[in-house]
User: Fold this.
Amino acid sequence: MKNLELINQIEAYIRGELSQEERVAFEKLRCEDAAVDQLVVEHQEWMNLMAAYGERQRLQHAMDLIHEQIDVHALKNELMPASVKVFQLWKKVRLQVAVAASVAIIAVLSTLIFSGHLAENLTGYSALRREINNIKRSQSDLAKNITKKSKGPVNPGEFGGTAFALSSNGYMVTNYHVIKDADSLYIQNASGDSYKVKTVYVEPEYDIAVLQIVDPEFVSLGKLPYTFKKSTSDLGEDVFTLGYPRDEPVYGKGYLSSRTGFDGDTVAYQVSIPVNPGNSGGPLLDNKGNVIGIISGKQTRTDGAAFAVKSNYLLQTLKEIPQKELERDLAINKKNTLAKLNRTEQIKKMQDYVFMVRVY
Amino acid sequence: MKDKINSSIPADNEIILGIRNGSKTSLDRLYRAYFPMILQLVISNNGNEDDAKDIFQESVIVLYNKVKAGDFELNSKLKTYIYAVCRRLWLKKLNHQSRFTNTAHVFEDIEEVELDVEAHETQNRQFQQMRSALSELGEPCKTIIEEFYLHNKSMQEICEQFGYTNADNAKTQKYKCLQRLKKLFFKSEN
Assistant:
């Protein structure tokens, strides 16, 4: 076991455990024998490595002890302000949040699209065309058939609105949105007389449509009681309307609340008046019996905000109708017979000139 | 003077002197003074508390090695040095874990700490080999070797600890253990 002895000697030499004589003897051996010298160097390196390893372990251990004394959690809370923690949280969950949000958006949009809600109501403006409840209507039609011979078609039509006379020879005005996509059109007055009408002219920009009675049974409406106002009406003016949100004429009273319509639309007034689907196309009259507008729609999410196309746009539209479209003369009535009457008398006189529109 | 010692940020040269002398107090103060900074650094960069602990302790080891080797020149603040080392170590770790994809950013600033960090990593690999070699060695060899070489105990103490009646028996045992350890260590190195 020569090596064992040698190693022990080297270790003792390196650790300085040799006596003076032993050390001198060993150094002499080292000088003479290169192999021994080599071994000394190698072993020295090895021992250094192991000592460093021990040193590292001690340091690590000491640090672990210190670390245990530190309340890392409290320190973390102290160091990271809430906003940073929120940010960290956000960084962790943003993918999930993004997925969830997309799903929610898709679900909401598809629901809106499939229910048809989006197309009509995204703007908050709803045109007051009435979708007639087929079953109810046909029942009441049957009842009418028993009591009275109907001149019009029994089929109640798919949509409804209101129209009113422009002249005694059978020109009518209503909203464009009431009669668009129509196959055929009929109007019916309060006493149940029904006439076939055709579209003469439309102005989608103002939401105005001019109709003409083409029924052979039609003779004349008689002299119109109301006139059309050329100028703009004032805020606060009392107004009223007559329309067909159901099968009977319905009177509504309100006041002019703004000179502009939905979203600042200068073509229309804002009117505070109770209106419902079916009122579209109805006349809006002031106290003196002047038509100042045509009821056209209302804002769905605001109370008491209905809109009416101004009468001067109606008159402007009438002027633009090409002469060849008009079979008869379209003479606007200039003599008002409503001005001095009270409201019930006014309505009674009006009634025969306001019609329900049925769209097929 | 007392105030100065108790202040939360110890003076750099005191710490360095303490490291050179192996002072436990210096280590304690160093740890408490700079760990929060590194905790903040790591946590705000996709890490957790344990990552911060590992990174910070490694940086302290790097500092210790440099100071003990005697080539530590305080040309920047100690705080800056530790921060730089930790930043480098953490970026490397992130890069390694591929949690950090912006590699261009990692290499754009080759700092002065790069050499220190690399030396530290080499040493870490060696120590890792040593650790596995020692654990493969088994008892009682492991303890004998650790007591003698790592903890610098004398053969006399080891004899008493293990109940060897004869110091020569203990020396023979230790020699055999050492040979086996070297074999294991160099085997794993190659």
